Amino acid sequence: MQALTDESVVVIGGGVGGLSSACYLADTGADVHVIEKNEQLGGRASRLERDGFRFDMGPSWYLMPDVFERFFGAFDRTPSEYYELTHLDPHYRIFFKDDDQVDITPDLERTKELFEEYEEGAGEQLERYLEKSRENYEVGMEHFVYEDRTRLRDFVDLDVARQARGLSLLGSMQGHVENYFDHPKLQQIMQYTLVFLGGSPSNTPALYNLMSHVDFNLGVWYPEGGIGAVIDAIVELGTELGVTYDTDRPATAIKGREGAFLVETPDGPLRPDLVVSNTDYAHTEQDLLPAEQRGYDADYWDARTYAPSAFLLYLGVEGDLEELAHHTLVLPTEWDEHFEQIFDDPAWPDDPAYYCCVPSETDDTVAPEGHSALFVLVPVAPGLDDTPEIRQNYRDEVLDDIAANTGTDIRDRIVLEEQFSVDDFASRYNSYDGTALGLAHTLRQTALFRPPHRSKEVDGLYFVGGDTTPGIGVPMCLISGELTAESVCEDYGHQTAQPQSERK
Asked: Given the DSSP bridges, would you call strands 8-12 and 274-277 parallel, antiparallel or unpaired?
């Protein structure tokens, strides 16, 4: 990257993308100031701490360890300098709602045997599927994720076409998985990762079968202290690079342009040379910018397909939760109706698929002695009516469902309870319609079809985070920070820079 010495940058929003871009920009010499509307950094990767319990409020899966290694390696550091990792075994447990239960472990041979129990030849098919997934991952990451291809001509370049040959670019994940497995439970196992992309089997491109390589081959890990410890590490790295941070300081307006910005806040204005926005893209454009400086109008945002919101329970529970693994999925034998009630006919799901996380299975610092920390997430449609009465009724239904389908009855053992849902996502994170993740990864919202890192109307204004490329998830937002910083340096860099990490 080129040097940004003497350039001042305000990063609005301290989510993963904003924190990542701040590190990259500071490393090139920029004076970087991160402002965050909430009381802590991390954005959706915030933490909740109450009465000796600690919960990751949002992301709780540590996937794609190679991305974290690459991020810290860019600054001549390693993740292990900041936190330790545990390889989870099992990776996760699945309860199907017909009294069936499976564990997915790090042992691929055991998993192949498991698949054979459901369908003859499925073990060999899994091997073939994962080989394709690995190919998609390696080619996709190198040529389409770490490189920001923002124009159609970037994709019709002969070299790009050569690299893309053989990738599963078109078709849906549902059709792709059906080419390998007939049994509906095996299809569900291969598709559950779509939740991390905010999609469904029918609307997510087959390219994202690469997530199975992430799951089965790269493994599922736990950073000591949870995802919050990863946020602490990125903030600590930023501090070492010279980034300054302000929490409880929301931006209320963005005015001006390159070299003459005015970022209004309740604590007084900031006047940076450049601005990077890590708030939700629609919020920045519709609420912070004047109408004449918006790249997209309200109709554009209204027409997008959004990832689900979520109904979340953070529960402190007396005693152990032996039936549940660190990561547990509870899936109806037919989950099409749940996805339909998210994307087609929005409603609170009647027979939900959901996720339970028990970090106290791995980390005894997240709950008082003799207690467990349980985090329950039910994907729901954004924009739903979200009243206290609806939440209470749904909470009771979910706890009943957990007891019925996992054998874990906690209804009389709860000593701490917090809820978080659609309205909270909208108010805490300024997310459109209370989506938990942002823009879904449909074919028309993938790669160059996502909003760009550069503002279409304002010189010197940039965007970072899950709504831009490469998309949703902690690893993708880390990469988004790098891509945004590269865009800034391409536009305003002065000379070839020697990053701080190399000035030793």
From this structure: parallel
Q: How would DSSP label each residue in 238-305?
A: HHHHT-EEESS----EEES-TTS-EEE-TT--B--SEEEE-S-HHHIIIIIS-GGG-SS-HHHHHTSP
Handedness of CA 14, 19, 23, 28 (dihedral sign): negative
pTM: 0.93
Domain with CATH 3.30.519 in the chain: 305-429
Query: What is the number of other CB atoms lying within 10 angstroms of the CB of residue 99?
Result: 9
The alpha carbon of 260 is separated from its chain's Cα centroid by a whole number of angstroms, namely: 33
CA separation for the pair 480, 67 (Å, rounded): 11
Distance, in Å, from the CA atom of 93 to the CA atom of 91, rounded to the nearest integer, reads 7
Domain 305-429 has CATH 3.40.1360: no
| Sequence-distant (≥ 6) Cβ neighbours of residue 350 within 8 angstroms | 337, 341
Where do runs of H (alpha helix) occur along 344-441? 388-406, 422-429
pLDDT per position as a tens digit, 329-347: 999 988 888 889 998 899 9
Distance between CA atoms of residues 187 and 182, nearest Å: 7
Task: Map tokens 């003799």 to a residue.
Answer: 370
What contacts 488, CB < 8 A, 6 or more positions away? 4, 9, 25, 274, 276, 462
What is the tens place of the pLDDT at every residue in 109-152? Answer: 999 999 999 999 999 999 999 998 898 888 878 877 777 766 54
Q: How many CA atoms lie within 13 A of 383 on its CB side?
A: 13
User: 160 pLDDT exceeds 50?
Assistant: no
CA 407 – CA 386 distance, rounded (Å): 29
Q: How far apart are the first and last CA of the chain?
A: 18
Q: Is 358:373 a contact under the CB 8 Å cutoff?
A: yes
Domain 8-84+225-303+441-502 belongs to what architecture? 3-Layer(bba) Sandwich (3.50)
Amino acid occupying residue 227: I
Q: Which residues of the chain form CATH 3.50.50.60? A: 8-84+225-303+441-502
**Distance, CA of 23 to CA of 71 (rounded, Å):** 10
Helix, strand, coil shares of the chain as percentages rounded to 5? 40, 20, 40
d(CA 130, CA 118): 18
